[in-house]
Amino acid sequence: MNVLTPNAETDSRGPASPEAIRKEILRKLFHLNTILYLAAYLLLGPARVMGPMLAWTAAVLALELARFHTAWGRSWTQRAFGAIIREKESKHYTGVLYTTIGALAVFAFFRDHPRIVKASLCYLAFGDSASAVVGLAWGRHPYWIWGRKRTWEGSLAGFAAALLVGAATGLPPAMVLAGALAFCVADILPLPPDDNVWIPVLPGTILLAAQWQ
User: Fold this and answer.
1) Is residue 64 included in any domain, yes or no?
2) 13 is a domain residue
């Protein structure tokens, strides 16, 4: 099965190094910028958000291609984001592109359902950050899924954050639980091309299905 490329910094069988923890915290602080996509949705509204989001996705893709194929692109990316780029991302797309694609998919599929949009993007911003940082910094009970390291502490932290997201966005109790469980599936399983695509889309799909019941 074509799974995500392992991260040397996070998938080691030994404890994470202080440098790996520092880098992951910086990455997840930057990852919280995902909430800007929600701000754009709330500001522009469902009818107008797709055009700017498509343009932004194209711009992010263009920057990624420039990083791969031009010296100035590599130099600029290293100066701007060198502190948070993972080793594997030197030859692969970064999480920024996949996060953008995930947000675009949320708008494409769920933009007429504001609570689902809010919950889906907040799962990506807060649930993913909680599971990654807690797992790397305090995880002491690891398990492996298709070659990728997870910890029970990180998974439980992500589940708790997802429950809080569902409650804060006004979902009914059953949907709070369904969304949090769907988040855990997307967060734990190393589904290609990247979890930043699936973390908002899979729970959003489950929430939409539950809404129709």
Assistant:
1) yes
2) no
pLDDT tens profile 102-131: 999 999 999 999 999 999 999 999 999 999
Full-model pTM: 0.90
DSSP code string of the chain: ---PPPPTTTS-SSPPPHHHHHHHHHHHHHHGGGHHHHHHHHHH-TTTSHHHHHHHHHHHHHHHHHHHH-HHHHHHHHHHHTTT--GGGGSS--HHHHHHHHHHHHHHHHTT-HHHHHHHHHIIIIIHHHHHHHHHHH--SEEEETTEEEEHHHHHHHHHHHHHHHHHTT--HHHHHHHHHHHHHHHHS--SS-HHHHHHHHHHHHHHHHHT-
Is the pLDDT at 15 greater than 80, yes or no?
Answer: no
Instruction: Let me know: does 110 contact 95? Beta carbons within 8 Å.
Output: no
Task: Residue 148: give the domain boundaries.
Answer: 18-211
Question: What band does 213 get if pLDDT is binned at 50, 70 and 90?
Answer: low
Please state the domain count of the chain: 1
Give the residue carrying structure tokens 């990180």: 154
Residue 1 inside a domain? The answer is no
User: What is the average pLDDT score of the chain?
Assistant: 91
Task: For residue range 133-149, list pLDDT tens digits in order.
Answer: 999 999 999 999 988 89
- Residue 207 falls inside a structural domain: yes
